[in-house]
């Protein structure tokens, strides 16, 4: 005698009463949805007032005849941009800026990586590394004004640099490093490199300490020497950090103003004129605010191109 299989009987689902949310779904108060925006509102207001509004105003000024100085400036289209792009001083400033930022960025990376490798080596004791870290990071602790004054004194014809060079017999008389058109740009670039490499050193040192020792051990087992371990292990692991920092440094260095202005003022003979000092002179020396606005917009566009590559690199790392 066999027993029939009986399916269990389940009650049909009961629909929630009208006006009530489904089980497990709490109704969100519309006012609560605005709470995150309330927290963000002070920052948004500050960004709009301090960034968006000035940028819009400068862009508007760049399409008008000389603003601020004239009571009723007229719309002139791209005339200010044409004037800036055909100005020989602007082209000189563009060339100097390209040399300044490219040499500074490469030197920052090379010096920062070299000192980071030195501080990460196992050949030095902990006390020695601590002393070197303090010495290497000192340039980063000074303000731009202090750095400019220090290097103006050091590079003076009667300064320490010329004294050392004369003592070693490398020069016969004091060189006016900041007053000679053939050396002024390189002197300012050297001062900028000296003041900026500690940031790269610290960042690359942190990245080096994050590389797993297992990778070096595996490379050593495969017979790789120090150079091959550096090229095949260290550099590939540091590549994302190096690219990100290089793009950031290009942006920061292109906006350098205080150091150049306090050391040379763009001289002599425009040999250290940068886009930042050119824009400043157009506005506050020549009182050509419309031309200065057009130059500022051009610098903004160039910076946005660099920022685009930086954001793209950050997205690739995710």
TrEMBL record:
Places the protein is found: Cell membrane
Phylogenetic classification of the source organism: Bacteria, Bacillati, Actinomycetota, Actinomycetes, Micromonosporales
Xref: CDD domains: TM_PBP2
Similarity comment text for this entry: Belongs to the binding-protein-dependent transport system permease family.
UniProt organism field: Micromonospora carbonacea
Name by which UniProt lists this protein: Multiple sugar transport system permease protein
Keyword annotations from UniProtKB, A to Z: Cell membrane, Membrane, Sugar transport, Transmembrane, Transmembrane helix, Transport
Keyword Ribosomal protein assigned: no
Region of interest called Disordered, as start-end residue ranges on this chain: 1-25
Keyword hit for Membrane: yes
Bias type Pro residues, positions: 10-20
One GO cellular component term: plasma membrane
GO aspect biological process, one term: transmembrane transport
């Amino acid at each position: 005698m066999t027993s029939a299989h009986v399916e269990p009987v389940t009650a049909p689902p009961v629909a929630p009463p009208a006006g009530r949310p489904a089980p497990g779904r709490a109704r969100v108060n519309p006012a609560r949805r605005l709470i995150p925006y309330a927290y963000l509102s002070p920052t948004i207001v500050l960004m709009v007032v301090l960034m968006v509004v000035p940028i819009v105003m400068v862009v508007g000024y760049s399409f008008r005849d000389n603003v601020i100085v004239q009571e009723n400036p007229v719309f002139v289209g791209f005339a200010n941009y044409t004037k800036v792009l055909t100005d020989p001083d602007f082209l000189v400033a563009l060339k100097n800026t390209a040399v300044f930022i490219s040499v500074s960025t490469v030197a920052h990376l090379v010096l920062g990586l070299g000192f980071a490798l030195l501080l990460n080596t196992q050949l030095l004791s902990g006390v020695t590394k601590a002393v070197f870290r303090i010495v290497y990071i000192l340039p980063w602790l000074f303000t731009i004004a202090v750095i400019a004054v220090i290097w103006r004194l050091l590079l003076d014809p009667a300064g320490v640099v010329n004294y050392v060079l004369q003592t070693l017999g490398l020069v016969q008389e004091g060189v006016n490093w900041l007053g000679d058109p053939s050396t002024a740009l390189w002197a300012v670039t050297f001062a900028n490199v000296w003041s900026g490499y500690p940031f790269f050193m610290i960042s690359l040192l942190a990245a080096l300490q994050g590389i797993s020792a297992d990778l070096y051990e595996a490379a050593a087992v495969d017979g790789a020497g120090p150079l091959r371990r550096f090229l095949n292990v260290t550099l590939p692991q540091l590549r994302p950090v190096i690219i990100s920092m290089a793009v950031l440094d290009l942006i920061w260095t292109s906006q350098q103003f205080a150091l150049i202005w306090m050391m040379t003022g763009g001289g002599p003979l425009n040999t250290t004129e940068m886009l930042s000092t050119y824009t400043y002179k157009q506005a506050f020396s020549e009182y050509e605010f419309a031309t200065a606005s057009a130059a500022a917009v051009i610098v903004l566009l160039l910076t946005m191109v660099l920022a685009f590559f930086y954001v793209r690199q950050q997205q690739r790392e995710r």
